[in-house]
């Protein structure tokens, strides 16, 4: 166990002069989480847009389920993905377990409901505002969705950033399906857990500092985009 003062000093040194191992872990974390966020936006924004404008029997129940899925326990997601990708599972032949691809799948499943639910609310409010105008122009549903997505692009960017923030901080699911294998599936959160359990606090703190910096950066960007959007509406 390292002295706390020494550990912090070494951690800041690692952040200022990152080692190859630290850079590898950070870059893999970003690659996995950004890919998962892109996939979650592809599925989630589509689902959110459809639910925003569609009216059908059972819609209320679908929304309840979708909102409930926003609180999916990460370890449960990890377990389900593990069962699906394990050798005895239906997708075991793909050989994806304990690879970055499995981690991307788990994170995508975890944040897609978040993106879908948040984007649905944004797009539904906008659709209610422009409903009569859309009817007067006789637009198809696809054209309405395209118009809504474009007009709400700044708000939807904040939704995507929220999803990324959730993904990059995830530990339970990626630990189960990735295995925390050195130089293959070790990301910031799993490395922090491992190094802390070993008593190697310097690397754990360095990764924690980087993770906090990313989280703060994402939040700052969200707030900037939100203020920019509010400013545009105020001048409109």
From TrEMBL:
It is a multi-pass membrane protein. CDD domains: TM_PBP2. Its main location: membrane. GO terms for cellular component: plasma membrane. It is found in: Cell membrane. Keywords: Membrane, Transmembrane, Transmembrane helix. One of its GO terms (biological process) is transmembrane transport. InterPro entries: ABC_perm_TupB-like, MetI-like, MetI-like_sf. The chain crosses the membrane at residues 32-54, 61-85, 97-118, 154-181, 201-222. Gene3D superfamilies: MetI-like (1.10.3720.10). Residues 26-222 form the ABC transmembrane type-1 domain. PANTHER family: PERMEASE COMPONENT OF TUNGSTATE ABC TRANSPORTER. This is Sulfate/tungstate uptake family ABC transporter, permease protein. The lineage of its organism: Bacteria, Pseudomonadati, Pseudomonadota, Alphaproteobacteria, Rhodobacterales.
